[in-house]
Amino acid sequence: MLSLYYPTGSLIHRLPTWLKLLVLAVGSTALIWLPNSYWALLAVVVPLLGYFLARLPVRVLGTDLFRLSWLIVFLLITQLIFNEPVQAATVIARLTTIILAAQLFTRTTKIQHLITTVEQLAKPLRPLGVNPYKVALAVALMLSALGQIVGFIGQVRDAQRARGVRLAAWSWVVPVLVLSLKHADDVADALVVRGLD
Amino acid sequence: MTARDLARIAVFAALTAGLGLLGSFTVVGAVPITLQTLGVMLAGVVLGPWRGSASMALLILGVALGLPLLAGGRGGLGVFVTPTAGYLIGWLVAPIIIGLIVGKRPVWWRVALGSVIGGILVIYLFGIPVQAWFTQLTIGETIITSLVFLPGDLVKVVITTIVTMGLYRAYPKAFDKSPGTKRRRANQNH
User: Fold this and answer.
1) Which residues contact B136 (CB under 8 A, 6 or more apart)?
2) Quick one: which of B176, B178, B175 has its CA closest to B2?
3) Binary contact (B3, A197; C-beta < 8 A)
């Protein structure tokens, strides 16, 4: 399993996982109601401060920002076509803040801890035939797959550009699907090896 | 549920989230147009009704946990108190209908039909009443404002159909509903 966890033993690392999840849930909810304004860009400072408090090296922040960069460029272009600049700034600020915050969560929380917490949350559903451990595992797998798939999209688009393929705008979907499904099968094999079936 | 089912459910939830990262455009104020329903349609076609629905449930669980998995990086419990909420409920039902219509092996017209009924009609059936309630419009007015999304939705049906048939050619293994080497070999012999 691909883990982005980066241990430094900071305060943020040691906070209970449920508390970090709560902050993330409340924070992302609050951001939905962020009014359209250039001031919204300041929201990005909050997760950046979090990276600083978590004592994550600049290199790690750099990697995370770089991963976001193509998304920001893409958003900037599409938003400027369809929306007002002020709206574009707010959308991008909201997105960058929320993704960086979620990334900070991933960087500072062991997957094992996330699984345990989700498992606790899913326990009341057990009478309905829900297996809390599998729910939790599925959430963790989804998060690691998301990182992989974002990588696949970039990879396939780069490859097509390099070959000078002028295809439909969505021609990357099939290769990305194939890579993703193969990734799913690899993960399944890894799970079977670890005794889960 | 096998490990393979679990991994595929997780991957389709992630894929649908990933399609949302590619952007969203709010045309008439309330509900953004996204590529995410493409993921909803594909989940039903590729995973079949129940696993498809499970992958959407997983995505929605992630959203509720505050992860930015919806188009435009939206997430958190707040999403469930916006005009979009009903459409998300529709996402849970859509793969069931699509999967049932498409059946075991994809045939292009079944994929298209399933995507229109499941991916458009069913999602609107859940989405429009909730949106109407939140935006204080009548159902009729909401249907009219929702018509702007229809061309985009039809394009997504076309893309789903082409992509599904392409995927079936490139990686038929993807459509094995009950995996196992023996069965796969048996299928190839037909």
Assistant:
1) none
2) B178
3) yes
pLDDT in tens, B102-119: 988 889 999 999 999 999
Span of A120-124, A165-169, B120-124 with lowest mean pLDDT: A165-169
Is residue B38 within 8 Å of B22, Cβ to Cβ? no
Q: What is the DSSP string of B49-65?
A: HHHHHHHHHHHHHHHHT
What single-letter amino acid sits at B141? E
- The reported pTM is 0.74
Alpha-carbon distance of A82 to A16, in angstroms, equals 41
Interface probe for B, chosen from A128, A177, A186, A189 (most Cβ of B below 10 Å), is: A177
- The DSSP secondary-structure symbol of B120 reads I
What share of chain A has pLDDT > 70, as a percent?
91
Residue type, B44: G
Run of H or E including B32: strand B32-34
Residues of B in contact with A142 (CB under 8 A): 10-11, 13-14, 17, 58-59, 62
> Please, which residues have CB within 8 angstroms of residue B125's CB and are 6 or more apart in sequence?
B90
Find out whether A1 and A184 touch, Cβ atoms under 8 Å.
no
Do B75 and A142 lie within an 8 Å CB cutoff? no
Rounded to whole angstroms, how far apart are CA atoms A133 and A122? 8
Residues 6+ apart with CB under 8 A from B100: B49, B114
Does the model's ipTM exceed the 0.90 cut? no
What whole-number distance in Å separates Cα of residue B186 and Cα of residue B190?
A: 7
Instruction: Tell me the pLDDT tens digit for each residue of A91-115.
Output: 788 878 877 888 888 788 887 787 7
* Phi, psi angle pair for B119, to nearest 5°: -80, -20
For the ranges A114-128, A154-168, B89-103, B119-133, the lowest mean pLDDT is seen at A154-168
Spatial contact of A177 and B43, defined as CB atoms under 8 Å apart: no
* B8, B74, B163: residue with CB nearest A174: B163
Inter-chain contact B25–A78, Cβ cutoff 8 Å?
A: yes
Closest CA to A86 of A25, A40, A146: A40
